[in-house]
Amino acid sequence: MKKFSKLVALSISFVLLCTGCASNGQAGEAAVNQGFENGTQGTSDEAATLNIAYQYGLAYAPLGIIKEQGLVEKAYEEATGKQVTITWNQMSSGADINTGISGGNLDVGFMGVGPAVTGVMKGVGYKIFTNLSGQEHGFMTNNDSINSFEDLIGSDNQIALVNIGSIQHVILALSLDKAGYDPHALDANLVAMAHPDGMTALESGNVSCHLTSNPYIFRERENEELHEISNIAEVWGVNDSFIVGVASEALYEENPELYQALCNAVKESVDYINNNMEEAAKITCEFDGNSAEEELLYMQKSKYMTETNRIFDLAIFMAEAGFIDTAPKSYEALVFDNVSGN
Hints:
Blueprint: H1 2-17, H2 26-31, E1 48-54, H3 61-69, H4 71-80, E2 84-90, H5 94-102, E3 108-112, H6 113-121, E4 126-134, E5 137-141, H7 149-152, E6 159-161, H8 167-178, E7 190-192, H9 195-204, E8 209-213, H10 216-221, E9 227-230, E10 243-248, H11 249-254, H12 256-275, H13 277-288, H14 292-300, E11 303-304, H15 311-320
Parallel strand pairs: 1-2, 1-3, 6-7, 6-8
Antiparallel strand pairs: 3-10, 4-10, 4-11, 5-8, 5-9
């Protein structure tokens, strides 16, 4: 356990040391076609800019509404009479977003609560400013001989998930712990893949297992050649925080009007989805590559909310399991003062 904690600490230290070279790393590669800008927040005498990063899946649906309807821009102009330019950057993992924020290339990121907690506790330079969604997870396999954790522990079967230290990794560790196993018993089996790549690898047989969320888990469950190993949702379900938004401390402190416009936009988009889900699905389906009918079905299996749930409990487990060196002293240590929840 201590060995794992040291490895995590060394890995994160290395990432932070390398942020000066981020343009040559994953974050830089992800941003090539998105147009990272320097001086992200601007000053009172110049137009404001905001660099936002997000990832894949229905968990991020409110961001499609924000982007399509220009909600941040509208809220900021109403509050200040000024304009803001938003740059949207789609990335593969929370680790990439952490690198972007620590290097000053990103102001805001939406990611799994696991890497968000890690970033806060490692001093990346942000806190959680909102919840975004809760989603069901599932653990699928293409191997008929795999039916439980016992069949995987000690084997060479590969398990695809977003990244080491991702919320999926933490959920897997939590599930193992609840089942009476070492929470890191399957760490050697993990391979990092973005959700869509993991699904492709599972269906093609390049990996044996995939731990994923909406919509990929529902698509995989429809494949008769795959079956589910265990019910991951028993330890972390749709009512628990999955995707949260983090904002840099610089944004929070130096441009409170833009920070508040961002918070208002997230709440407006979440309310819009919850009150107009069918219309919302017609908007966001274009971002997710689904039909409007599929998008609506997947949205109905999601929970969109700005209030966090169980993130402090998760942080305590992450400390006990060695994902982070020390546990936060309170819920308030993880979030800005506008956030409600637990």
